[in-house]
Predict the structure.
Amino acid sequence: MDFSYEVSRALASCEGVLLLIDAAQGVEAQTLANLYAAMEHDLEIIPVINKIDLPSADIDRVKEEIEIDLGLDSDTALLCSAKEGTGIDAVFEAIVQRIPPPANHKDQPLRALIFDAHYDSFRGTIVSCRVFEGCIRPGDTLRLMNNRARYKVEEVGLFRLAREPKDALCAGEVGYVISGIKRVSDTRVGATITLEDDPAPEPLPGFRDIKPVVFASIYPIASDDYPSLADALEKYTLNDAALTYQKDSSAALGLGFRCGFLGLLHLEIVQERLEREYDQSIVMTSPTVEYRFLLTDGQEVRVDNPLYYPDPVTIEKGFEPYIRASILLPERYMGVVMELCLERRGLNARFNYPTMGRVEIRFDMPLGEVIYDFYDRLKTVTQGYGSFDYDLLDYRESDLVKLDILLNGERVDPLSQIVHRDGARARALRACKRLKEEIPRHLFKIAVQGAIGGTIIARSTIPPFRKDVTAKCYGGDITRKRKLLEKQKKGKKRMKMVGEVSIPQSAFVAVLKSENE
Amino acid sequence: MNNTAIERQESTPAPGNPSSPNAGLYVHVPFCRKKCPYCGFFSVPSPTLIRPWIDALLNEIPRYRSWPGRFDTLYFGGGTPSLLDIQALETIMLCLRAHFSFSLDTEITLEANPGDLTTETIEGLRRLGINRISLGVQSFDPRALAFLGRTHTVSDAETAIRRLNDAGFENLAIDLMYGFREQSLQDWQETLQRALSFEPAHLSCYQLTVEPHTRFWKRVHTGRLLPLDEDETRTCFLTTSRLLEAHGYLHYEISSFARDERCCARHNWKYWTHAPYLGLGPAAHSFLSGKRWWNVRSVRRYIHELNAGAPPVAASETLSEEQLALEAMALGMRTSRGVSLHTIGPGQAMTHLSRFIDEGFLKITRGRVLPTRKGFLIADYLPTCLTA
């Protein structure tokens, strides 16, 4: 789901696909989702069974799944091991033989679809596109059909091991265009390029719009790193346009950004890349979905941040987004998975038995339950055999409350969550327990409480530490002691002070993670 | 000479006064008959290496002949310095006196095992000018001694103390250990009472710390030794401090108690106040003008380097202002001298300071921030809060 956008824009730019299936895992929920997407685009599909070198590879079973689960002719499936290079020639040959060549529309006005863009500090924005009709050459003036911006084409070419300039990029080709576009945000993935002199009348269909579905705030650990974080986010979005962000502030954490992600995996990737590639020390708050509330005055508000949960007395009705979850699993795990789904407020269970011993379960389920460690739990209860995919369905009415977390009586707003009333107590207990594990002991006792409005519904206590001293410190111990203190100071700098309490980064997402079982 | 030496201390600046220009000299004697299961100090049970080690030490000493200034402490630590015979100690002392300048009232300490102190040895030590003995008694309870793997008996310790008193060793320091299950709080108090009955000038009471690479460490990690919990060790610590202070002793450092001001370990104060010190022998650390260096942690390599005419130094570091400040804070918080108020870091540190004062961990006296008895218990936690 997180990357269905990437899949859809790739599918829109080609004539055929290789459908890769793991020889050991077999057909998974994502395999089905991608197959349907390729079929929607009416593409030639070549099933390829990869990783046949694995000792656990079971080609006969996978072929059977291809026949029954996917409805494809398993005789057309190719066998290969990309790691060892086995069968790769046959794959290339099949691409040449079986995927139809692009239709030749060289003489028509230019229409090229932008499917990606990245920034090069020497050349500016480099646009990746698929030319459907016409030709584009250096010296031409191109026009972006979405915003009518014009640029002089400097270079066109193909992607080989390096960029390889060409005289022209013509209908059927996939390549790059460099045209002095300074900022990636000036181009839009899915937009159509045409020529200023001989414009096409209509743009290409483009892709379905992407909308973030999971939201979380990012704060710098040290508040004076805010400008540096702002800069990092701007650079980051140059090649990940799916991340949206805007300024945000919190009483506990100061200035930061509210970000929208395609899903939890996307969120984790963003967090990881900001830390590793952009060297940012950040706190990310618990992710949430976008809730809608109908107020008594008839107004509808959208809330993607628990901070803006409306005054409960003004709420007429609450709504939360639902998904259609599709879970593919061996039959023996059906009981535990059913239990998990019902616990997560799953509705309308439907079952499919594609092959012997395997079940596909479909559920309607609130997205808010999925971002709450659903995937981790699913993997745990099915010992890794369950696979999961989802589509957004609609918004449904729901009894929503805001769960606050209080540390020594003070509300820590980034730890607040919007939850269904029935699950609030269990969530609160879990959050209190996890925070007790994550927050180091202080010199004073820390009360961790979960509350709805003024009512405390869960509590845990972090006892104070009462002793921290070594018996000896002579000539040979001093350097070692200093190094230890320096390390502690560094660790402390990675904690966020909220009131008197130092909270480690990990605590902010831990409230949403499952227990280590 | 010893008695007069000690009386003269009265007129010298208080130990640890940073304005004192004098340095401390440490000689590490890295030999033991047998490693104790709790001890993390560097030593080897290889008596055959003693001779070559002495030769190497005699080579190391002249390397520092241009050391700036005088020494007013000399400390033979270990290992087990009392393993050395008087002849060996004399050779070393002569060499030290030949290359270094000592103040008249130099405090000369030797760490000794109770079993090693015959009347003749004691007389020999006295003649060499050694005026302070740090005696590794550890406990007056045979069960505790057995647990700690000590080879001496309670009566060995008592005999040694009596002999030292008889020989006129005024300045006697007794080392004791507590904080393990095999010793009840009651047992510990009895050991303290026995120690007090000798009215030693100095008492070091060490809470058992399980050091890496020791047999106790291995036993803890294989579940065969269960350390005392935090609240129990805390009670032991507080009881010790209260009891000894009630008997007039000064609790002047986490583990150190002095019968009066003059009895504070002048040598150890050097470590705690960034005074200069020179360490000789394997694994010994030195500090001078913001630079610290330490010798190789191997007797063979120490000997090899010096025989090859090379310095036996393993590594060195030059401390930045910030590092010096952090160390000064960490060391200061371990002593009753505390730190000067103006060294408390800006911003957050001040908020922490007032909280620590409110909660009775620290107090301010004459421009200095001092840890209270309760504050000693969190001395390792305080520095990161109080520096910028």
The longest strand of chain A covers residues 315-330.
